[in-house]
Specification:
The complex is a heterotrimer of chains A (326), B (339) and C (284).
Chain A: H1 15-21, H2 23-51, H3 53-59, E1 69-70, E2 75-76, H4 79-110, H5 113-126, H6 131-156, H7 177-201, H8 205-213, H9 218-229, H10 231-247, H11 250-255, H12 273-280, H13 287-317
Antiparallel strand pairs in A: 1-2
Helix pairs in contact in A: 2-13, 3-13, 4-7, 4-10, 5-7, 6-7, 7-10, 8-9, 10-13, 12-13
Chain B: H1 2-16, E1 25-31, H2 36-49, E2 53-58, H3 62-71, E3 76-79, H4 85-90, E4 95-110, E5 119-120, H5 122-130, H6 139-142, E6 156-160, H7 165-177, H8 179-184, E7 197-199, H9 201-211, E8 215-220, H10 221-226, E9 233-235, E10 241-242, H11 246-257, E11 280-288, H12 294-308, H13 325-334
Parallel strand pairs in B: 1-2, 1-3, 5-9, 6-7, 6-8
Antiparallel strand pairs in B: 3-11, 4-8, 4-11, 9-10
Chain C: H1 2-42, H2 48-52, H3 66-97, H4 100-115, H5 118-130, H6 138-163, H7 166-174, H8 179-207, H9 211-214, H10 234-242, H11 247-278
Helix pairs in contact in C: 1-11, 3-6, 3-8, 3-10, 4-6, 5-6, 6-8, 7-8, 8-11, 10-11
Classes of the chains: A mainly alpha (326), B alpha/beta (339), C mainly alpha (284).
Amino acid sequence: MDHAAPRHAGGPRSFVERLRDGDEIAHVVTLTFAALILLITSMLVYELWVNSHLSRAQFGWNFFWTQTWDPIFEHYGAAPFIYGTLVTSIVSLIIAVPLGLAAAVYLAELAPRNLSDSIAFLIDLLAAVPSVIYGLLGIFVVVPAVRTTIGPILINTVGNVPVIGRFFKGPNYGVGFLTASIVLAIMIVPFIISVSREVLLTVPREQREAALGLGATRWEATWKVVVPWARTGIMGSIFLALARALGETMAVTMVIGNDPKIRESLFASGYTIAAVIANEFTEATGDLYLSALIELGLVLFLMTFILNGLARILIVATERGGGRPT
Amino acid sequence: MRKSLLVAFLILGLAATAGAQSGTVLLNAAGATFPYPIYSKWFDVYHTAHPNVQINYQSIGSGGGIRQLLAGTVDFGASDGPMSDEQLGQAKFKILHFPTVLGAVVPTYNVAGITGDLNFTQKALAGIYLGTITKWNDPEIAKANPGVSLPNADIVVVHRSDGSGTSYIWTDFLSKASADWKSKVGNGTSVNWPVGLGGKGNEGVTGLVKQTPGSIGYVELIYALSNNIPYGKVQNAAGKFLKADLAGVTAAAAGAAKDMPEDFRVSITNAPGATAYPISSFTWLLIPAQISDATKRDAIKDFLKWMLADGQGFNESLSYAKLPKPVIEKEKKAISLVQ
Amino acid sequence: MRRLHLIWRKSLNVVMLTLTGVCAFAVVSVLFLILGYFVIHGGSSLNWDFFTKLPKPVGETGGGMANAILGSLKLLLLAALMGLPVGLMAGVYLAEFGGKTFSFVIRYTTDLLNGVPSIVIGLFAYSIAVLPVKHFSTVAGGFALGIMVIPITVRATEEFLHAVPGSLREGAMALGASKWRTIATVVLPAASGGIITGMLLSLARVAGETAPLLFTAFGNRFWSPGWSQPTAALPEMIYRYAIAPYEDWNRQAWAAGLVLLGLVLLANLGCRYVLHRRGFSRSV
């Protein structure tokens, strides 16, 4: 294929010849960088593993379901934090994904190009807002809103629905799982919108036109043809968003109530792994305490591992029909 | 295009080296958040008077300060709670404690219909935070506040979520006030709170209390004063209900000064004396006893001398209490221990 | 019956499309709320002093965050230099060269890395770049931020390289270009719009991070000469000042937030302008 490399009649080329091509080099170079990511992550996990050995030795598997977190009597358990992390991440995705996807669809398909570009630009800025600012806004705006407006409305409406109603009962102080999820949703929505919009823009015009040519309405063309085509990219943006939600510390800790307990109601206060690490790490003294906090980091890593795996299985399961050929 | 890039890099390179001076003594320090305002003031004033000495203090938390000191990444540390014997044992070198200022922790609350100062007995505070006292009109609170009509409302307890010296002081006091607390919860920068919501930082607690009717929390005195937050009176060891102020804090320290151990590691909560505010505490600088770099050592020693003399003059303007004279004298002697 | 179905489809069309517009504007209004807060609370503190002076202790007015602004710039530069190339190259590998299983492993690992809380990354950088040399430095901070920049960059690069139509690739190869040449001169430029967006997004995200800098760049009340001293940074100052009980500091925190956003805005604008000049248009 490449004119530059001399060819042996019919046989495979030697390593030197392939090297001269430049393709091998490119392959090796990019491979090295990709492997670097593997190296960094492995080192990170190794550090987490090594530095948490005291806690692992002391508590073993019980760490996962112990519900106490007591720095004075040195009794540590991860259960409340695992629960809180799961609840806030999932609920924030439930809020952010439809919102973000809808906005991305609007920006990519319907808005005039200039408007779309400007708005996308501004939304990118949202990603740069420091976590602590989101936390402050959470305290000044979201917490009162949940306590006085959103909370009562939800309790009176959804609270009475049979199955999911139990999540919307109970005392409501404004801080808690729901508030944290709302704040998280606002924080992760820019990632979904930004990347999804770009991906939707790459969908070839022909696809859209073909659908419209067959009599689809604008919405049908978008929902049934364009969006599925961009599905992997959109999923990718959701992964990004999920990752951010799992690891977010500052904003969450300012509005979640910081109570290491497992409670059913979304209005109850809770705690997440990232938040407790951020809150207690700087002050922690005592090797077992530090070790337990680091073990929490390891647990979060494991959770991310599993959640990512589940999500990927979900993608593969829905692979049939209407995707961009990979 | 290339040229402008080159120029940009040059400017950045120059900017990167901005501020480099020879002969400057650079000291890095880390630790307590509670005295950050006064420390930053001190280090700034000291720098103006001694332009070749730069003391860079970052308030990453008492625990963080202790850890970084033990790791050797900072020149000295600061802590709201004294280092334990265990921690001192972990150090490869001897560490000296130097009290710098005094602070207090006050109970702040938000109860419908109450505008004046509420009195809190020690048992009341312990009971509230243990979760055994759950209503505002509980007899333990009511008997200390005759004539005040307390509502039959739930008490929403607020505590600190982040590890902090303030929590250390508060739980230290509660441990002395209630044997129950001491055995069930204990004292430290982070504890397993039996009840309550956690707010991040003083401002988190204040925010929660302000927004939640029927709530009670604890914050540093300085914070309460700067933000005009209502706070209550606490009963001290002598039985008097005191509203925290700088004089009461210094009185607490004076009371403890008589029995001050040589290494200054002492808790002054619940100090004896009629005018002593019971929830007071020192905050300490942690200085290594051996400093190999002579210029750094001299700078630190000189700063300590300055801190005990001129430095104390700035305390009150920032709502920190001064160290009592006997303590200052003792510390001056201790400076010579830094070699 | 068909008529009814048609009316249903048409109304669904209108409803859904309006809904998407509503969502878009809901998000934008949140942004304006935030920007508005910044401007109202911090606008008054933005003066020449803010950009040129060092921070003053509490109680003294004046003083600025000049060292934090410079510190943030230096940190972002380091993060970009360390993280963007890794992300870009890894993305190229995944899209163009990768074998099935190894690519899967890399992708998975990248997503994992993205989910690590920023404070844990800071701790990792602390043990690698600070403990061995026993002092905090700008380089350590840049290292921590650089790690955080990688995942988004990888995803964006891979995604948008994939999106380049096969016809472009085949055209180049038909003209005799080798694979790497095709990638470098045809595919990457075609995907550049999306890739640059991804890079800017990742830089924007780390620009606002505090936690990873706590134990690496540490913070500094003074100027930080060179690259091996602790340095101040805007997000760290914002964090300290925003939660302090002093109103002057609070206002400065909002002003700093405004400056931070301004920096990110400038970076965005600058990159797009440069790309525009060079003729890299957005993908189709």
